[in-house]
């Protein structure tokens, strides 16, 4: 069969050369015939988009990054971003909250991650999707950064405002349905996106696209640049190197020395990181290893402030209301992550931890033991599990939980939307054409955040799923007392 087909490919160069000629003609046409567009702010004439003069004349320097995965990951990346922006003295572009599975990174320990450029592209595409589906909500509308901002430890700008100012195009235009407008709009947005994502790499004075990721780099910060360039203690092992032919070597790099004052990146209007996700692995930080052992007072205060970035008051108040009006007794919180990813395989261990805690509580205390449950296991699937047993054992246990459609949750969402925590400079209606295209913004789903708030108030203790970043965040809230802030 294959030998019969072979003759077809005897002159493979003919179609290829035709293609090359066509492309060259197209290229010549674009360069010599088409005049420079006066309208598009990002020059579309050349292959590489350029910064608008408007972006270049802004005195201010900006930084953005590409968040990924679930909310708790996004929150920890946001904290790292705040630190980086503080160190580099750049205004942080505040992203929206991404859908849980919209953007994935891969695995740093396995040296298998998406390139920073590609992850920035996915984030941009997802941002457009969020705008179009009227679900865009800034992380600053959920997480209270007002005290960070008012202490001027860091300057921030909402991504939507940044895009308006820096690209001269409103993200709201993604909602345009008018077919005549649509193509020019989507072209403008695409150009803005490719510039922000660094599709064409760094562009002088305009954007510096960080290409280092956790396969090659661990960011550090020391006043004297100490340790810059040193090998990190975690390297791919021989087996991995041979199996995957990985040439990666992980070096510790001082973020200020590499990207701050006096660096090549300094003059760029926008600094674009990939993900800023980090975690400890084999005693080493995977990507960001910055701690507060510094003399610089500003830096120390900044690190102190980001230990806990609390939820906005509307969320904490709703959590407290549920505790006071519905539970009305000392209670235990159990956070059971049972379905997602790796957690599927540890259901037994997760339930075991809860059982042990409950046994000791029911021996010690008055009955029934009050328990608040937050879990990704849908309510209908509780029968036959430990959760079903708890509910039927009415003598010993009283179980509480929240659902997405509960009045309390919806009311908090309405209040939150009207509170306008988004750190906006331009109002929605200030879009470049002066018209609001994205009508009827949907209410955000606050269930996960209010559940965390409830758990932070649980006076009988907290049982979380080991390895879950949600559990870690709840522990943080309990330790640093977001409850004491209200
Ligand atoms: C930080 O940036 C701001 C605004 O661009 C500037 O006014 C200020 O002097 C900078 N501070 C330092 C220490 O470079």
Automatic annotation (TrEMBL):
Membrane spanning stretches: 12-32
A GO MF term: glycosyltransferase activity
Gene Ontology annotations of biological process type: fucose metabolic process
Keyword vocabulary terms for this entry: Membrane, Transmembrane, Transmembrane helix
Name this polypeptide is given: O-fucosyltransferase family protein
